[in-house]
Amino acid sequence: MATRAGEPVTVRRVRPERAGAALTLHDIHHSWGERPVLTGASLELWPGSVAWLGGPNGAGKTTLLRVAAGVLAPRRGSVSAFGLDIERDRRDFHRQLGYLAAGDRGLHPRLTVRQHLELWSALALVARERRDGLIEGALARFELAELTDRRVDRLSMGQRQRVRLAMTFVHEPRVVLLDEPHTSLDDAGLALIEDAVAHVTGRNGTVLWCSPASAQLPLPADEHYILADGRVVGG
Amino acid sequence: MSALREDLLAALAVVRRDWLIMRSYPLRILTQLVSVCFTVTLFHFISKLVHVGSFTSPEAYFAFALVGLIVLQVLNSTLHTPPGALQGELATGTFERFVVSPFGAVRAMVALTAFPLLYSLVTALVMLVFAAGAFGLHLEWATLPLLVPVALLGSLSFLPFGLLTMATVLVFKQVLGGVTFLVAGISLVSGLYFPISVLPAWMRVLARIQPFTPAADLMRHVMTGARLHEPLAGELAKLIGFPAVLLPAGVLALAAAVRAGRRRGTLLEY
């Protein structure tokens, strides 16, 4: 069922730590100062699925994604991926994770496209013997092969976004969190994400696509959620 | 692949990244090396003015001050450069990638200290070669190979202070002014430019309770044959003891700062 912002939605009741879930966010609470942003947000994503999370500006989408990525520790609640707890199994949790932050940051202007992928695959603890193959795969998937030795400060904004996406997907994560990934991308760029997402779900992974409006979602999602009043609704 | 090997390879990738960025500014490397040679030259001429009992000759003071300059290079590379680099990572958003990687923010910050340290050791070598070649610095060849382990021990003993300043950056964001003040204070009390015997008694106490004085003392001893101010065992015990106690403390401080930042939501702020 596709649920768009403004339409009636039903609360999806989820069981915490349900076995088999690719990603589980359970009863997440977080405040910025005195202002509560997340007030019991729960979400479960299944292997092989794509979900869209929407909501108005300031609803807390990025906050929820940061909690899911381990950048933020919630005041209350738990996060797990394929049964790995984000606090207890942090290293293995992050091996499974691909996270694209919103905006255009996180690049080293003086490094080339390939150097970025080499760095990121090393930080993702990819075994050396697998690294070259994965990097070539990411370069091909995001059509960066011709730009491989170009410094990123000499790329267009759309090309930089493709580099950021390649860094997100290069280590073949099974849980991918995308915060407004469509930024600066043309139609061809959006099609490249669709292919990368299909590659993740084809390996029984899951993808959470976060953007204010579902019109920005270029691919069919299995679940549509809205973040409203600090809770996730829809499904 | 073992966790340690994975971490070493990831740390090497961070070092390689820092080298690639540095290499992309070739003029910067050149000007830095020329700058340290100018400083060595400056102290060579200043030493010609020194005719005091503490030093048998102007050349003796030049050798003394040169080691002080080298220690200062290493000191800046551990205390000043890593927190500055961390501020840069926070501002450009690259720190976030460390946080969401399995390598992790704490290990990444420890890895951030490696390149500046290695670079400062290369700079120190350039200073030494330049001083020997241009001004005939007397080197004690018999003990000179010991410089490598002594310099490494000295660097390790400085490192915890760098980790602590990085933890402070994560919590307070802007600390470089304080670090400059700290480095100036350390260079004052640890006898980098003059013997600590000229300091007032209360300042001499400060000279004995940190690792910078024994590091400079031992380096002078192995490089130029200068007399040690304390027994060798005591100097070595300090150089080994400080990192043994303070390195774990520094890593714990980094981990605590990351935890606090994640909890308060300030981890990525700059």
Mean pLDDT of chain B, nearest integer?
91
* Measured distance between first and last alpha carbons of chain B: 36 Å
CATH secondary-structure class of one domain in chain A: Alpha Beta
The largest sheet of chain A has its strands arranged as 6-7-8-3-9-10
Greatest interface and its participating residue counts: A-B, 35 and 33 residues
**Percent of residues in helices of chain A:** 25-40%
Main sheet of chain B? Answer: none
Give the biggest beta sheet of chain A: 6 strands, mixed
Q: How many distinct helices of chain B?
A: 12
The arrangement of helices and strands of chain A along the chain is: EEEHEEHEHHHEHEEE
In short:
Chain A is of the alpha/beta class and 235 residues long. Chain A has 6 helices and 10 strands.
Explain the overall architecture.
The complex is a heterodimer of chains A (235) and B (270). Residues 1-18 of chain A have low confidence and may be disordered. In chain A, the strands form 2 sheets. Chain A has a 6-stranded mixed beta sheet, with helices on both faces. A 4-stranded antiparallel beta sheet of chain A has the order 2-1-4-5. In chain A, helix 3 packs across helix 4. Chain A has a domain at 23-107 and 172-234: P-loop containing nucleotide triphosphate hydrolases (Rossmann fold). With 235 residues, chain A is an alpha/beta fold. In chain A, 49% of the residues are buried. Helix content of chain A is 29%, strand content 25%. The termini of chain A are close together. Chain A has helices spanning 61-69, 90-95, 113-123, 128-141, 157-169, 187-202; strands at 23-32, 35-45, 50-54, 76-81, 84-85, 97-100, 175-179, 206-210, 223-228, 231-234. Chain B is mainly alpha-helical and 270 residues long. Chain B has one domain (3-264). Chain B has helices spanning 3-23, 26-47, 58-79, 81-92, 94-99, 105-112, 114-135, 147-172, 176-189, 201-208, 212-224, 232-264. The model of chain B has no long low-confidence stretch (mean pLDDT 91). The chains are: A alpha/beta (235), B mainly alpha (270). The A-B interface holds A 30, 32, 69-73, 90-95, 97, 99, 101, 103, 105-108, 110-111, 115, 118-120, 122-125, 127-128, 151, 167 and B 1, 3, 6, 9-10, 12-14, 16-17, 20-21, 24-25, 92-94, 96-104, 108, 259, 262-263, 265, 267-268.
